[in-house]
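Protein: C2H2-type domain-containing protein
Species: Photinus pyralis
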Amino acid sequence: MRWHTGEKPFACDLCGKKFARSEHVRIHRRIHTGERPHACKICHKSFVQYASLAAHSRTHSGERPHTCRVCGKSFSQSASLTYHTRTHTGETPFTCQICNKGFAYSGNLSIHMRFHRNERPFSCDVCGRTFVTSSHLAAHTKQHTGDRPHRCDVCGKAFMRSEHLKDHRVTHTGEKPHACKLCPKRYTQSSHLNRHMKSHKT
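Structure follows.
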């Protein structure tokens, strides 16, 4: 009945957080104590809850029991399916309180907020340049190392970033995935479309 009434009589003696069931307090206390009693038999990574271990184990077994009803893509965790479903529905439940822009994932909203706060927590060890996300830093670092891990399987040309390889591939296929919403023109690269869009503004 406590689920319906909202009653939470069991409190954590370390932080005061309240729960409806005593076993939930016991599991919660592990956050404070650092106890992780559920260990993976394959890689020995340990978890606070058994459910987390069960979800982790699927990364080893390859099991993907959660399937999208729209496109059939499968996932190892139900949360991943929930996030994926939003790509079909367009749902953006996380909204920026400053500019009202919506996001499908809470993590994307957190990153977006850094732009408002002018936070750039990721710094290049070589030149000191700072970035909003770790992925932007990783892409930048390749400019110093010369690393080009993304290679075209048709001509062998290599690129620093996967999106640059994606743009390059259409030169082989002739595909023009970037369409103008105002006229019938299509382009192989997003930068070409952006340049074209300026012609509609003049």
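Remarks: The chain has three domains: 38-89, 94-145, 150-200.
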